[in-house]
# Entry
Amino acid sequence: MSDTTGSGPMLAADGRPLKESLGRALRRQKLRALALIAPLLFFVLLTFVIPIVSMLIRSVDNKIVENTLPGTVPALAAWDSTTQDLPSEDVYQNMFFDLFNASEARRHTRLGSRLNYETTGLASLFRTSGRNMDSIGEVFQDAIEDVDPRFEEGAFWFEMMNGAGGDAMLEMRRARWENLTEQDMSADIGFMPSQAIIEILPTTAAAYTDWAIWTVIDEEEVVSEEDPWEAVYAALAIDLRNPATGPALAAYKGPGAEALQTLAAADLPDLTFAQAFLDLDEDWADKEVWETIVVYSPNYTAGYFLNAVDAQLTPEGVSMRPDNQQLYIQLFIRTLQMSLIITGSCILLGYPIAWLLANLPVRTANVLMILVLLPFWTSLLVRTSAWKVLLQQQGVINEILVWLGFVDDANRLILMNNSTGTIIAMTHILLPFMILPLYSVMKTIPPSYLRAAKSLGATNWTAFWRVYFPQSVPGIGAGSILVFILAIGYYITPEIVGGTDGVFISNRIAYHISSSLNWGLAAALGTILLVLVMALYWCYDRIVGIDNVKLGG
Amino acid sequence: MAKKMLIAEKRPDLLRFTMPLTALLAAMFGFVGGNMAAQPMLGALIGALVGCAIAFVAETNLMRRTQVRWGVIAVLAIAGLVFGNVGTAVSGAIIGAVLSWTAYWLATGAYGMTVPIYYTPAQTLWHNTFKFICGLIFFFLVAPLIPVMWLSFNAEDFFTFTPEMLNFQAEGYSLKHYRDFLGTDEWMVPLKNSLIIAPIATIISVTLGTLAAIGLSQSHVPGRQAIMAILISPMIVPLIISATGMFFFYAPLGNWLEATLGLSQSFVGFVKVILAHAVLGIPFVIITVTATLVGFDRSLTRAAASMGANPVTTFFQVQMPLILPGVISGGLFAFITSFDEVVVVLFVGSAQQQTLPWQMFTGLREQISPTILAAATILVIVSIMLLTTVELLRRRSERLRGLSPA
# Structure
């Protein structure tokens, strides 16, 4: 060991070994530095990094299907779309209860719009069908109440269903409501399903528990005073159709046993749920509807990402959308193309200015620098409105050209609401971001190199191209990446001067956030853009180093 | 100083150099002017003749530069007034100023005085062409702001110039858009919101950012690169993505704050926007303050400590005054970031948090009123003041650190 000498370990002033003492000091220094950084790091993580991560999660999140159709999704797993034509009666029954609950909670339209992104027509199918679930239930309710009017009374139902031992069922139904409504459903409801009834009439018990939870927590009523909703009657009819129910009821001695036995012997409507759904809307007999639900039933989906690249997930696998629905690949290409053009024009305009500033005496350069910094410091909205004033059909440029007679009054130039407008305005807005890094690189190139080249016989052009230009390339790289990164995510300027064919991918993201409300797709588009920018950022770090970013010269 | 270098020792020939070039430039102006009357060729011819005359006058009156130039300006302005209106008279005066300046610039040989003596004529020509190109680019950078300021004094509710404005008639101008801006809630409420949000966001980012920058500038920081990358990321990630992420995350956060702490909706809205703006301003504070700390002499803090000052006293008495310029300019960047920000506030805020840029954005997108231009002009003036402050601070900081001579 290097810290030991012949006379033992080297000691610090306080008598500890020096190595340990130095280590302690270093550790304390590191801790102090971290303690200074920690508040900000925590702040940035909370207010920035977590939101970005939440966007990434949302781009694959698809819990809405399973949360809205908790019964249908497992039931559909048994359906094989390649051999069977339509799902079994069991699937339709589950769909009835799921849609019934969803429409009570007014969530069925959300699921409809979600699935509509994948197959058009599903939004209206879910909206109209959800509204009509009551009418299916009423068929059974009327029949049951005709057999025994006691089934009209809430108190009778409560006495029959209430009991002990149904904790598991109660908790399961609560969890389903919580998933569906995204609200807390844990309050006490003053009802506990009876274990005896759960064994004999499982569907009825589940439907009644659902209703009880909703009645108490959302509608703030008392279970025993209210009549159950139509789904409970439908559930009772389903249970009575089961051949095992009759014998079990015969042995049942609990409350309402006699009424249930009469009902079991009576003649109830033999309407199947498959038929009931078909009567509502014949689309329910469409295989594609059920296939869509199956394909999008997992909790996480690549569907949004596929949509973001003009593809879609079908039962047969991934396929491209039809040509007339393709939009995003083209939009990404256009965003990249226009960003490249903007970067190119910034190099073209920025290089001479940076060269001039770097080679003028400091005092003059500082004065001219103000001309570069003034637009840099001016509000983005001001510069965008300036370009609107200049470029519009009745704008300054067109007025001058017409006044001078170069352009006919009837054929004014269309400079705005197309890609020309976006490119001109954004070149102007981003030009300082090119000039500043270029200038700081050019400042470090000694002017004597050029003079040396010339004195060795190089022409002006050779001296510039072979000696000066290669040394300024890092500046071009830094400026280009900076401008490109900024251009690719621009929103405000394209929105105002871009019209329809001068817009960027960011405008589409904003559209999905605020107008079409397809947040998953917005998140997926944002994630792709983010990955693109991160790759560029990594290049930037490689070329310039992120520590070397300078602001304002 | 300008008087002394008025005349170069070696002056060009009148007939072979000064006169043809001046005539060429004048002919271009003549072409454009003649084009207005659908007579471009005739205009060019007249222009060339006028150019020759100006070149001749300049050559023969080298020492009476001021008088001759004003004379040319006056003659062309009057000619403009005779053939047109006040607008053409102003154009005439401008053309006169340009032509007479060019004539003297050529005739006195001033064009060759900024290049080394050994330059060939071709190199001199390129040098001056290059300067002209740079001039055009500077024009491109600054000129778009001029029509905005001009139009903000429009007496009509148009976004375009009226004939009265172009003829410089007093009835074409008014301050009504400034009155609209200063006198209506439509603009004053957003301005007030901006002035609430931006300073608070700036204070948060400056406080946390300065502390972290000091931490980052210590010699041993574990994971320095990674931490730096995270802290800079709000500047690199496109605003639309930050806004999307915040939109998803801040809405449930706001609901939670309202539900559990019982805060009012408007207050929570402000908190959300302020937090979002503060995090967007942080990279600027980090960058400027770490840049200032690079030149900071660490022995000063050690000296203070050895004289018995505790770390807090050392910070406020020794370190803070020296890095203050960097802190202030970082703060100004953070302020302007928040004050100028639209996308995030559009996604995170609600109508009660409408800021000035938001109001301008909706104005530009939906109803076009020149009040926006009045707001824009005021913002330009504010940004000129901010720019001046930052420049002065930067120079002071360089002087303090001995980076620039005086």
User: Anything to note?
Assistant: The two ends of chain B are 23 Å apart (CA to CA). Residues 144-174 of chain B form one domain.
